[in-house]
Write a structure and sequence with these properties.
- The chain is an all-alpha fold.
- The chain is built from 7 helices and 2 strands, in the order H-H-H-H-H-H-E-E-H.
- The protein has one domain: DsbB-like (Bromodomain-like, Up-down Bundle), CATH 1.20.1550.
- A two-stranded antiparallel sheet has the order 1-2.
- Strand 1 and strand 2 form a beta hairpin.
- The protein is elongated.
Length: 166
């Protein structure tokens, strides 16, 4: 099995696999938002950024894959997944009230005029990062994303090491 994973012919598929994973994750998040009606908070939106970065670079690499480009994209994906896992762990901590979020919570708008004040009062409040709308088996989406991103980061780090050795 290990010899099969070290096959350079398989390495050229890594960008397509990473692109599919990114598209699937973003598609799932957008489905939850627009079809299921789950409103994302700021941290939910930040967790989408690593997937978008991975998808963009993997998609670009699919047009002209070469060994160096594939290794660079997989290395970037490892870093992006690790950052995504860190953001998700931070979000889980906010959900569990282990700490307070620095990016979620109300900031008072600057009051310029009465019109600005009225517009601010009529706008819906920003979704709090500590409210959990969806739970499966007792775990939130942020928890699942933290685990998935950490596993993917590890797999990508291993893949980069194996590509260097091959």
């Amino acid at each position: 099995m290990s010899a099969m994973l070290d096959d350079p012919k398989l390495h050229r598929w890594y960008p397509a696999i990473l692109f599919a994973i990114s598209a699937g994750a973003l598609g799932l998040a957008l489905h939850a938002q627009f079809v299921l009606g789950l409103e994302p908070c700021n941290l939910c939106l930040y967790q989408r950024i690593p997937y978008a970065v991975i998808g963009l670079f993997a998609g670009a690499c699919m047009t002209r894959p070469n060994a160096k480009a594939v290794r660079a994209v997989v290395g970037l994906a490892a870093l992006a997944f690790a950052i995504g896992a860190a953001i998700a762990v931070y979000h889980v901590g906010v959900e569990q009230h282990w700490w307070v979020s620095a990016v979620c919570g109300g900031t008072l708008p600057t009051l310029g005029s009465t019109t600005d004040l009225m517009a601010g009062l009529s706008a819906p409040p920003e979704k709090s990062c500590d409210s959990v709308d969806w739970v499966f088996l007792g775990l939130s989406m942020a928890t699942y994303n933290a685990a998935f991103s950490a596993v993917m980061a590890g797999l990508c780090f291993v893949a980069v090491r194996r590509m260097r050795a091959a």
